[in-house]
Amino acid sequence: MEVAAAISATDPFDPGYRLLRRVFDRAEITALAPVLARIPSSAAGRRWAGHELVALLQSPPMQPILRKLAELLPDMAILRAVAFRKDADANWFVPAHQDRSIPVPSVALPPGFDHVTRKPDGWQAEAPVALLAKMRNCRIFVDRATIEDGPLEVLPGSHRRGRIEQAEIPTIAGHWVPLIGEVGDAVILSPLLLHRSRRATDPSGRRVLQLELIPSEMAEALGLSAC
Ligand SMILES: O=C(O)CCC(=O)C(=O)O
Q1: In the chain, domain spans
Q2: Threshold 0.90, pTM exceeds
Q3: Model pLDDT, residue 81
Q4: What pLDDT, in 10s, does the model give residues 149-172?
Q5: Number of Cβ atoms within 10 Å of the Cβ of 109
Q6: Is 185 in the pocket of ligand 1 (CB under 6 A)?
Q7: How far apart are CA 100 and CA 176, in angstroms?
Q8: Distance, CA 205 to ligand 1 centroid (Å)?
Q9: CATH (residue range 11-98+135-222)
Q10: Per its UniProt entry, which superkingdom is the organism in (predicted)?
Q11: Is the beta carbon of 83 within 6 A of some atom in ligand 1?
C-alpha cells in the first residue's frame, strides 16, 4: 500500500489528466484559424475521422502542432480530431460522461468492441476498457477559457474505476475541477476520466481542438484507421 502510494505520488498522470501551460505559442494557434473556421456556426463542434482526418493532419497549420504532440505523446497515432466552440449561439452543456466510443472502419468490430453506431463521419463503437486506459485525448486551448466560459470539468481519479454506468455517476463522490487555461495551454486526459461541461455564464466563444490518440502498435494490431 505504501509502495502504491509512493508510485502514484511520482506519477504526474495519476489524477487522469495533466494540464500543461504554454505548450503551443500564439503563432501556432493563430495559424489554426482555417481549421477552426470549419466549425458550423450554430453547432458545438466538428469532427474529423478517416480520410478527412488524413487531410487535416497533412495540412500545413497542423505540422508544428503534430511535432510537439509527438514529443508529448510518443508512439501514438491520432484516431480522431474534434473542434469545439462554446459561444452565445451554441452555449451547450454536457452531462458527466466518459469518452468510450472511437471510430472503427466498419461494423465488423475488433474483439472486445460493442455498441456500434453510425455517425455522419463513419462508424464508431465502444472500445474495451483495457484499450481506453492506454488512449489519451489532448485538448488544445485555442482561446482562453475562464470559469464564465463553461470550461471542461473533470473528476480526478475517476478513470481508475474503469467503465462507469451512467446511473452510477451521481453516486460518485469527489471534487470536480474546472480546467481553465490560456491560449496555447493543453490538457492530456484519459478518455475514461469523467468529464462534463456547464453552460457559459458569460461566453467569450472559447474554442478547443481535441486530438484523440491511441498507441500506434494497438491501432495497427486492431486494424483501426489511424494516421
Ligand atoms: O469541451 C467541452 O466542454 C466538452 C467536450 C466534451 O464533452 C468531450 O470532450 O467529450
Answers
A1: 11-98+135-222
A2: yes
A3: 94
A4: 999 999 999 999 999 999 999 999
A5: 17
A6: no
A7: 20
A8: 14
A9: 2.60.120.620
A10: Bacteria
A11: no
